[in-house]
Amino acid sequence: MKKYLIVFLISMVPLIELRGAIPYAVGFDLPLVPSLIVALLGNMVPVPLIFLFARKVLEWGKDKKYIGGFFTWCLEKGEKGGRKLEAKAGAGLYVALLLFVGIPLPGTGAWTGTLAASILDMDFKKSMLYIFLGLVLAAAIMLLASLGVFGAIDLMK
Q: What's the angle, vertex CA 14, arms to CA 20 and CA 149, rounded to 5?
């Protein structure tokens, strides 16, 4: 039970998210299905809070003495990511959000995707659905990578 709690907590950490939790679970030989469920739940817990409150908190704090620089950086990163997503996606904005969250690259994930969706004033329910689907994609990719599937494919060449 303790290791599942660790998987859950790792999944909630910005920048690490389930991309770090799934390799942890695989490395400790935890059963895969419960580990994936726990990682997905842990990664989704902060998502509605980020969508509803992060932008407001960041805008409030951007001119504060000690936190202003970091808050401004977060706002700029969310704005930049959101505008880039919007420019590339056009009508497929929600699919682009899914892919942005789902393809495990540095700087992408549920935290950044949710902040971008919030900054772009995207629909809350639809954003939550597509972010969750993106996390399912990221979980599948990370599970395959953690199990060495991609390395095995490379060996077959």
A: 25
Q: pLDDT averaged over consecutive 10-residue blocks of the chain (157 residues)?
A: 96 94 94 96 96 90 94 84 77 91 91 88 94 98 88 57
CA nearest to 103, candidates 149, 147, 145, 134 = 134
Domain that holds residue 42: 2-155
What predicted TM-score, i.e. pTM, was given to this entire model? 0.83
DSSP annotation of 45: T
Runs of H (alpha helix) within the chain: 2-12, 17-27, 32-44, 46-49, 55-61, 68-89, 93-102, 110-119, 124-146, 149-155
Going from the C-alpha of 73 to that of each of 7, 38, 63, the distances in angstroms are 28, 30, 12
Instruction: Please count the CA atoms within 13 angstroms of the CA of 98 that sit on its side-chain side.
Output: 11
Q: What's phi and psi for 29, nearest 5 deg? A: 55, 40
- Nearest of 141, 144, 148, 139 to residue 36 by alpha carbon: 139
Domain count, the chain: 1
